[in-house]
Specification:
Arc Repressor Mutant, subunit A, 4-stranded mixed β-sheet, disordered C terminus
Length: 166
């Protein structure tokens, strides 16, 4: 079931958290963000809307949203990030050189999990993971061996790379 901003606010209130204008702005920004919520980006966005919001308040609110089951943290190339639990299973391919980000669909992840299980007898859980590597542009198209597919061609959705933190 999708979690709305109102539901997230009520879950935080249920933890005994007072919903100040700062916390409301943080929750609204988190719920409006598609993809990963990167704390430093979130801090900048919230401070632009509500000057004076401290980084500590943002981090504590993210932790409380995780405790409430709204967010889950992931380890990104640039550090910790969060994503909403109600998003479809997916993974992100993040270029370690330029930061471009592409999304792998749940269907592609399922095929990858089946391949690993078939070849190694191990069932991985790739959902909501960030996988680092080098994008096509950073690999240099001319230097790729013939027939080698770019990792983004595994079934990435969308129209191409996205800047990290969007």
């Amino acid at each position: 079931m999708p979690v709305t901003t109102g539901t997230a606010v009520e879950l935080l209130r249920g933890q005994g958290l007072r919903m100040t204008p700062q916390r409301l702005a943080i929750v609204a920004e988190v719920m409006a963000t598609s993809g990963y919520v990167v704390p430093q980006v979130l801090i900048s966005r919230v401070q632009a809307r509500v000057p004076g919001v401290s980084a500590a308040t943002v981090y504590r609110t993210l932790e409380r949203l995780e405790r409430a089951g709204v967010l889950v943290h992931v380890h990104l190339e640039s550090g910790i990030g969060y994503h909403r639990v109600d998003q479809q299973p997916h993974a992100h391919l993040i270029c370690t050189e330029c930061g471009a980000e592409r999304e792998l669909s749940g269907q592609t992840l399922q095929r990858l999990e089946q391949l690993v299980e078939r070849e190694h007898g191990f069932r991985p859980d790739f959902t909501h993971q960030a996988m680092s590597g080098r994008c096509l542009a950073c690999q240099g198209v001319a230097t790729r061996p013939a027939g080698r597919r770019h990792v983004g061609a595994l079934g990435a959705s969308g129209s191409g790379g996205r800047a990290r933190g969007n």
